[in-house]
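Researcher: Next sequence.
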Amino acid sequence: MDTLIEWDKELLIYLNSFHTPWLDPIVLFMTKTIASLPLYLFLFYLIFKNYKKESWMVLIGIGITILLADQITSGIMKPLFMRLRPSNEPTLVGIIHLVDSYKGGLYGFASSHAANTFGTALFFWLLFRNQYSAMYWLFVWAALLTYTRIYLGVHYPGDILVGGIIGLMAGWVGYFAFTKLKARINPTQPTL
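Model: Next structure:
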């Protein structure tokens, strides 16, 4: 385990070293929820356009996804493992690049950003993969957003990896719940 932690630290130092002053404010903005608001609004538009009166079932599915992803990482794992974020790790002071003294919360394992973005990406990919082939770009969006956390020095790559896996599982559970609910309410209508 100590070896894995050391590799995680070394990979963070390497990946965090790719920074430049002009990119810092862009990455700091990208990591905020408001930066993804246009995408979220577009996805909600697609829900209401494609599902109309049944949109509430989709909203329950995405709600389950986010609830699971966020609660498992923030509500259970961070307090359980109490792994300091790299930005709060005394041995990394002066080694990693921080932007505008942004440090995030105290603990970082596992990444809620990774869980929520990858859960959202998988849920919407499963939901719309047959209608919109470009839905795979949601995984690129999730990868970019989670890289911002390494760039900012607030997550180790391992935090991101585990958070992403939890998010994918949460996205699958949320979609599965949606399909079961839809089948129960409208047993003769197929899922898109």
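Model: Helices lie at 2-16, 24-30, 37-51, 55-81, 112-128, 137-151, 157-185. The mean pLDDT is 94.
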